[in-house]
Amino acid sequence: MVPREWQAHYYRTSAGAEIDLLLHDRRGKPIAVEIKLSATPQVAKGFWTAMEDLSCKKGYVIYTGKEKYPLAENVMALPVTDLDKILE
């Protein structure tokens, strides 16, 4: 469950940059969350563009696998069972 003082949004631009779930923590800092139904998650260029446009310092790709691993310097793949790690 997202803490009450956090905000949750969907983000999409007319150019196609998209983030499935954009969270703003209690300090207002944006966190990008992409949700994939694949055991080997990959994100589209629009995710990276949106992260840059919004100055997201952290991002997560939630997927159906079992391992936590980095996709980029500031983006982690997280199993759906570790969803609570986003809120730490």
Task: Please describe what this structure looks like.
This protein has 88 residues and is mainly beta. 10% of the residues lie in helices and 39% in strands. Strand 5 and strand 6 form a beta hairpin. The two termini are 12 Å apart. The mean pLDDT is 91.
The percent range for strand residues is: 35-45%
Number of helices: 1
Give the N-terminus to C-terminus distance in angstroms: 12 Å
Give the overall shape, derived from the CA principal axes.
globular
Oligomeric nature of the chains: single chain
Q: Which stretches are poorly predicted, pLDDT < 50 over at least 5 residues?
A: none
Biggest sheet descriptor: 6 strands, mixed
Task: State the helicity in percent bands.
Answer: 10-25%
Major β-sheet strand ordering: 1-2-3-4-6-5
Rounded Rg: 12 Å
Mean pLDDT figure: 91
Q: Strand-and-helix sequence, N→C?
A: EEEHEEE
Which structural category fits the helices and strands? mainly beta
- How many strands appear in the DSSP assignment? 6
Please sum up the structure shown.
The chain contains one helix and six strands. With 88 residues, the protein is mostly beta strands.
List the defining traits of the structure above.
mainly beta
Write the layout of secondary structure elements.
Layout: E1 7-12, E2 18-24, E3 30-35, H1 45-53, E4 58-63, E5 69-72, E6 75-79
Parallel strand pairs: 3-4, 4-6
Antiparallel strand pairs: 1-2, 2-3, 5-6
